[in-house]
Amino acid sequence: MARVYTDVNAVLGPAWYEFESTKIEWNVPDRYEITRRIGGGKYSDVFEGVDSSNEEIVVIKVLKPVAKRKIKREIKILRNLSGGPNIVGLVDVVRDFASRSHSLVMEYVRNADWRDIYRSLTELEIKQYLFQLLRALDFAHSRGIMHRDVKPGNIMYDREQRKLRLIDWGLAEFYHPGTEYPPRVGSRYWKGPELLVSHRTYDYSLDLWSVGCILAALVFRKEAFFRGRDNEDQLLKIVKVLGTDSFEQYLFTYNLCLTNVSDELVQQHARLPWSRFVTAENRTAATPEALDLLDKLLRYDHRERLTAAEAMAHTYFNVVRLQTPSNPAECFSDSGFYST
């Protein structure tokens, strides 16, 4: 059971989280003109485009054929999170009846490629980047939603404007205590241990592991701190840093069993201090506060990880902390939906 925002969806009721019966009113795509392809993946192709009604640049996410329920879930979640801090805005939903394709039209944010910035962000920029990401996640969690695919590729960051948006909510899901969720979500380098050992009753804390991986990448100047060849090797990379003893305790605590694992994974590995990864190149970013925050995010046991709100309150962010409510649910209660 999640330590925070446990009963949000129960309080708000089916009208908030039930998406399969949602009727989507699709508009025609005539007002949007595609100008160039900017990315894509397993579930969509992504294009930059122009809204001819106002000449504004937009992002057009053309969905590949997937289950209707998945499309409805993403739209429902985006609408529920509309206006949230640092969360990408949904502009329109359109359907081309000739090709029978569905597209989501999204807010455009100029993006600095991760490979261009992970080595060069200053300590202050790292703090600003992470704090904005945590604000987005705390807002989503306070509304009962897990992102489940937090990674640099799903973060649009305008470095010049210091503007961040968390995008791609296609794998996001509503959190209900005790529910078993599929472990095949997320992207390998940023996957929490619970996914790698098929622990299905995970919660919002899954997203905080991913934040910890991003922090480690930025602080230690690595494109990805844990970089496994496959899921088993990914778990091994984690165990070689966090150690075997606490991993075995984690498995015991949640009655988890590993099968068909490599000999190397069952060998004893001592926990490595975070200072082991500090070099002359990354020393200015790898401050004691950064390493302390990292240590409190990258924990096997999801219940030991900081929540997004707790991470935002860490001394690491003193210089960038905004004058906003410490708990976004306080804002939520203003709209009459939920109060703590």
TrEMBL record:
* Main subcellular location: nucleus
User: In the UniProt record, does the keyword DNA repair occur?
Assistant: no
Keyword Metal-binding: yes or no? Answer: no
Superkingdom per UniProt: Eukaryota
Q: Which UniProt keywords apply?
A: ATP-binding, Kinase, Nucleotide-binding, Nucleus, Serine/threonine-protein kinase, Transferase
Indicate the segments forming the Protein kinase domain, all copies.
32-317
One Pfam family it belongs to: Pkinase
Question: Per its UniProt record, what PANTHER family does this chain match?
Answer: CASEIN KINASE II SUBUNIT ALPHA
Quaternary structure, from the entry? Heterotetramer.
Functional description taken from the UniProt entry: Catalytic subunit of a constitutively active serine/threonine-protein kinase complex that phosphorylates a large number of substrates containing acidic residues C-terminal to the phosphorylated serine or threonine.
Q: Which family does it belong to?
A: Belongs to the protein kinase superfamily. Ser/Thr protein kinase family. CK2 subfamily.
Protein name (database record): Casein kinase II subunit alpha
